[in-house]
Write the structure tokens for this entry.
Amino acid sequence: MATRKLGLPMRVPSADGLPERVTIWEVGPRDGLQNEATTVPVEVKLEFLDRLAAAGLSVLEATSFVHPKWVPQLADAERLLAGLTRRDGVRYPVLVPNQKGLGRALAAGVRDVAVFASATEAFARRNLNSGLDAQFDMFTPVVTRATAEGLAVRGYLSMCFGDPWEGPVPVEQVVRAGRRLLDLGCGQLSLGDTIGVATAGHVEALLRAFADAGVDPSVLAVHFHDTYGQALANTLAALRRGVSTVDSSAGGLGGCPYAESATGNLATEDLVWLLDGLGIEHGVDLDALVATSAWMAERLGRPSPSRVVRALTG
Amino acid sequence: MATRKLGLPMRVPSADGLPERVTIWEVGPRDGLQNEATTVPVEVKLEFLDRLAAAGLSVLEATSFVHPKWVPQLADAERLLAGLTRRDGVRYPVLVPNQKGLGRALAAGVRDVAVFASATEAFARRNLNSGLDAQFDMFTPVVTRATAEGLAVRGYLSMCFGDPWEGPVPVEQVVRAGRRLLDLGCGQLSLGDTIGVATAGHVEALLRAFADAGVDPSVLAVHFHDTYGQALANTLAALRRGVSTVDSSAGGLGGCPYAESATGNLATEDLVWLLDGLGIEHGVDLDALVATSAWMAERLGRPSPSRVVRALTG
């Protein structure tokens, strides 16, 4: 297919109040790799991060300081950060689950962290061994110390649309939990559709509820999974509501195209293709990114779930 | 994953002028199967059509009367139509490429046909052995006879966004070609993104241009391919512009999940999931449809490219 040579997609900026620029929050090295069956050597991760930065991505969620027992794929967090060549203008946030994780991150010289909360009681109990309210007791000292140390803190809020145990999640409940994370001191809130059940109308309703609660869309990010094929349509709905930070995963890392259920993150390449078509700036060199994802797919021994990667490397 | 039992996705109708009801124009039996490597026996096609109708799809593009040399997968068009049990309230349109094809269709008792035109010079020359203008000389007697016989006629317009030889296609050129098909007597015009390069802003721009040219969105349909993962986001953009007929293919037929480049149609199940979430009526029983696509995937010896099918049958 010769389409890339022809400079497609055609740039046709939409008039409907879309942001001029979007920040892509690249989660492949953390959220992607922690969900891959294959554990990647630290040298490969370092090359991956460097290639992603070279491709123009300005936020790379590098790793997680969760206990290695839970996420063995990221057990090398200290070694990774010690080996990282930081590029100017690039942020390398890491996930910290608790005070111990924050301590490890600070010792490794991290300046940018993210905490992970649940919007539902059931997921808080299962994933965090905590209740919906009690989880904030766990985060408060983490966020307080991080902000006191001058770190940027992002709050992830998971199960914002549906929960496998509770079903659809009322938007008011999500807004309440999100407001608490922001009030604690999180500078950004990433709204996660952890099981991929969101649809465009639900996304709009949730973002409208946040606006009604006085939360500016500039502090919000969206984090969609493509379980039911809705991730990019949901992203489009969020952009129309003024959101300008979008989480995605290079090559769709974390979702396996051979698996019966492909539950991976939105692929960064598919997002870039949409943004290019809408004339929205993002700073990413698509060819360099596709080459990087194709290279990583070889390391993982399976094709990329990203449609753009498959179309451009076919 | 227990999500289906919980009745997800949550229905959150959007306020932004979406249609209340969408007609799904199911192209799997024709556009899907003609692009599959495996040729399916006529008995399987008949069962497929009957199961799709039983699942609530009201328009089933059944086959094509193109010369068997070009599309051997559909060489059984006469046998298929002779064996078809037509259900009340279900339309079974067929593709007719020329006068000879129309003659065969009429002899087979068809009441609903579609013609296939190109929006670009290059594709008209390659696919139709004709020029952009000259192709209308070919269609005029076909559409004239079909309407005189009281048939409903749909006009497909391909390469409406990009063309592999010409690159991006100007919207004015597409509107001009589309107007000619409507003026000839086509009751509906399906705008095709044959190579999957459309993005949401481009879709909006094209539909705006049709509106400016006095074409009501009620006579338009959209036909997207998921080559670059944009099909559902493009559909959402079209719904917002008032389009209420959407082409899709059960189980994403025509696109192979193992191929390096997945160029298939939008999967009907992924579309239904979006429409369900938006509270838009469509009449389809998703579980019955998913079961049908899973059954057909077995006949074809490969998994379905539809994310919804994979998620719900995993």
Summary: Chain B touches chain A through 63 residues (CB under 8 Å).
